Amino acid sequence: MQRSSYDTAAALLPLVGGPANVTSVAHCMTRLRVGLGEPSLVDAEAVRAVPGVLGVVADGDTLQIVIGPGAVVAVTAEFEQLLAAEQLLAAGQPFTAGQLAARGAELRADRARRNATPVKTALRRIADVFVPLIPALIGCGVLAGLNGLLVNAGWLPWLTPALAAVASGFMALISVFVGYNTAKVFGGTPVLGGAVAAIVVYPGVAKVTAFGVALAPGQGGVLGALAAALLATYVERWCRGRVPDALDVLVTPTVTVLVAGLATLYGLMYGAGLVSSAIGTAANWLLATTGPLAGLILGGLFLPLVMLGLHQALIPIHTTLIQQQGYTVLLPLLAMAGAGQVGAAIAVYARLRHDTALRTTIRSALPAGLLGVGEPLIYGVSLPLGRPFLTACAGGAAGGAFVGFFAVLGDRVGATAIGPSGWALFPLLTGNRGPALAVAIYAGGLLTGYAVGFLATYVGFSGAGSPGDPSPRRSR
Predict the structure, then answer these.
(1) What's the rounded Cα separation, in Å, for the pair 55 and 31?
(2) pTM, to two decimals
(3) Which CATH architecture has domain 5-116?
């Protein structure tokens, strides 16, 4: 039977030193991050052995527990509630659901303060705007791919128009969701952010002229919606501090929508449209003219970008390309980094035959790695060993160059949604010459990444001690 999120959280809390040792709680896409008062109180091996935990990495006074996408959100919520309850009990206080929620909010605020650097804060907020949209992008992307297959095969012609409507409805209004989330993340009223962003996709904007050119519905896309909602948030906050309370409910929403709406029509849509067009043009030019080189660089550098958190800056670019072209040509290239990681891990498994603990880690983390969840292999295998992390990057570079080579030939491979990678990306693949060729090229890239990552790692271990002895190469 599948272990519940509550059971996982309840098992983890005492192993990290108990509630008194926890100073903050956070999570990203795959990891539960626990701030610690005293790191030495953590039983890392016992944490790693908890069912549902894919890996553990200690980072100073923060313990990162890899749980995986989706599951980490539920486990974090349960962990925060357990922590709040235990801390209130320790203080001898009765607690209610409202108090638990308030304590959880305090923990999140404390975590935000501890991790607040300008770059990290900006990237985290961008991710917070777009990450909640990923499930809908995936679901609609899979349906769009299925509908494309049915249309190309001439099957079920009575069903394909309905599937097209179901798959396309979200993308037609994605700007509204972006606006809603932007206001929510940046401290505004979400529905006002959505209202202003809705201007971007309203058909009536075709009657408006900005800079001597008639606007087009959807011009500026998600970038225009992001900018519009961000401006609306600042206008709203400005009004809140100046409008009397008796008039606030009437004046503030009106001024917010009016000022931000006019600025969107007469500036933001036009400017964001130029930027969006430049992104699409640049991506197509990059692959058409420097495909192998672009693939090599993107595939080779993505693992370090993930480690630094800089990959979050790519989310709006992916979303813009999907909205413009129906798919993002960058994600299949970046996904090759995971292939290099898998190949390197298999080589380590083959070389270090006597390191039972490491081989057990690889066996447990490899299925997740094949499906595109790379953190367990990164933090449990390649990064601690040092050299395999570099050879994994080499494998990713080779896989990216393979996919990029076909882009120069005119065969572009794209993903209709963001989020999955590895084998999980196959249902979302398409391209300018159909999904079948896109799948074949992507599969070839994965095999190249596996092979180069494996060979570079396997050969790299020779001459550095006996094949079964990890000690000369393990870095701590």
Answers:
(1) 9
(2) 0.72
(3) 2-Layer Sandwich (3.30)
